[in-house]
Specification:
single chain; DNA polymerase, domain 1; TIM Barrel; ten-stranded mixed sheet; 11 helices; about 15% strand; binds S-adenosyl-L-homocysteine; binds iron/sulfur cluster
């Protein structure tokens, strides 16, 4: 049974106030940016570096969201910091817990400048031996992949580095990955004991259309003196924004996933329209050149299984031919339906046959078990309440999701 907690009541809300901050935010700034912000706020330049590293420790090792907890910083300075800056968490509007343990949070960020508040979904997927957080990079998406629900929501705006990173901070708060306030200073929750061991940029939006903010957030998430997630455990998924693929490897150094979904330009133009701009040969060349590829560091190719559209053995054969020479694994994703979607998920036998063929040709090809479908947390089902679903639409979606769970159940 799925459980929904309404956390919008201030008495039960576990983190920062809804009206957080029109003040400049320190979360999500690089170290030099933070030093500069402190210097501009009147902290002597000589001290700014040391203060920035103290604040960094509190924010990312201890997980605090209130300056008053920063006990190695003098009271007066703490008060000045609180007056000038914000480090508050976004409001958790809703927390849903699926029958399979998947959690989905709806987070509300305050307006930026003249804008309106935005709402973003983040999903946590616990698995044997690891826990993956699926993070959003934009509210909505400018691209219009024909099988993706997010693609039907117009882009509201790019998320800032703070908003991207805050998704991880909120998840760690809620899952107990930060030490309690009364744990002795310096004590941390050991890496092996943490609930969030991996992150994937596979929520709402196209991360490579928001490169700078995504980069800053991921570099902070992987900073060894802070959140310390290994870059091997961070995967960025793109629909194929070719000019930024090389930069992702060079400047972020994380793992790469490509939303391939079709092996011929004609079909990919339809499913993933960015293909018209960056067709398959360009995309695969960029993949071949991705820095640091080896058998231990492979590119994941995501392939959504659409009945009668891209799921024939001929497609599987062509897939093998296309990927020749690229250290790759192929992730088959059963299609998750949504109201008005023009596709159906391939039959389970077809998916297995497709997977077997790819396996026999030497590629790992896990079938991604749909998770959290009962709370609409599965791939491509995220669509924030910034564009609220009408009740009827939601009910229809829930019944479609149930139906799909029953189909997928054959493989679990
Ligand atoms: N915009 C990025 C990352 C977000 S989408 C991208 O496209 O790669 C994360 C993955 O979910 C992508 O591979 C996407 O193609 C897939 N996806 C989208 N809608 C889906 C659906 N309805 N069913 C299954 N997978 C879907
Ligand atoms: Fe955007 Fe990715 Fe959905 Fe395509 S699949 S519409 S790029 S979120």
């Amino acid at each position: 049974m799925a459980v929904t907690l309404d956390l919008s009541d201030p008495k039960t809300r576990p983190s920062g106030p809804a009206g957080m901050a029109e003040k400049p935010v320190l979360v999500g700034l690089t170290r030099p940016q933070m030093q500069q912000a402190l210097a501009e706020a009147g902290i002597p330049e000589k001290q700014a570096r040391m203060r920035a590293s103290q604040i960094w420790h509190w924010l990312y090792i201890r997980g605090v969201s209130d300056f008053s907890a920063m006990t190695n910083i003098g009271k007066e300075l703490r008060a000045t910091l609180a007056e000038k800056f914000s480090i508050a968490r976004p409001e958790i509007v809703e927390e849903q817990i699926s029958g399979d343990g998947t959690r989905k949070w709806l987070l509300r960020f305050p307006p930026r400048g003249a804008g309106r508040p935005v709402e973003v979904e983040t999903v946590y997927i616990p698995e044997e031996g690891r826990g993956t957080l699926c993070i959003s990079s934009q509210v909505g998406c400018t691209l219009t992949c024909s099988f993706c629900h997010t693609g039907t929501q117009k882009l509201v705006r790019n998320l800032t580095a703070e908003e991207i990173l805050s998704q991880l901070l909120v998840a760690r708060d809620r899952l107990g990955d930060f030490p309690d306030a009364d744990t002795p200073q310096g004590a941390i929750v050991p890496l092996e004991g943490r609930k969030v061991s991996n992150i994937v940029m596979m929520g709402m939006g196209e991360p490579l259309y928001n490169f700078e903010h995504v980069k800053n957030a991921l570099l902070i998430a992987s900073d060894g003196d802070g959140l310390a997630l290994s870059k091997r455990r961070i995967t960025l998924s793109t629909s194929g924004v070719v000019p930024y693929i090389g930069r992702t490897g060079e400047e972020i150094g994380c793992m790469l996933a490509i939303s391939l979904h079709a092996v011929r330009d004609e079909l990919r133009d339809e499913l993933v329209p960015i293909n018209k701009k960056y067709p398959l040969d360009m995309l695969l060349d960029a993949c071949r050149a991705y820095p640091g590829l080896s058998n231990a560091k492979r590119i994941t190719f995501e392939y959504v299984m659409l009945k009668g559209v891209n799921d024939s053995l001929g497609d599987a054969k062509e897939l093998i031919r296309l990927l020749k020479g690229i250290p790759a694994k192929i992730n088959l994703i059963p299609f998750n339906p949504w109201p008005g979607s023009a596709y159906e998920c391939s039959d389970w036998d077809t998916i297995e046959r497709f997977a077997d063929f790819i396996n026999a040709n030497g590629y790992a090809s896990p079938i991604r078990t749909p998770r959290g479908r009962d709370i609409l947390a599965a791939c491509g089902q995220l669509k924030s309440e910034s564009e609220r679903l009408r009740k009827k639409e939601r009910e229809k979606l829930e019944s479609l999701a149930l139906e799909a769970m029953m189909i997928a159940g054959h493989g679990e």
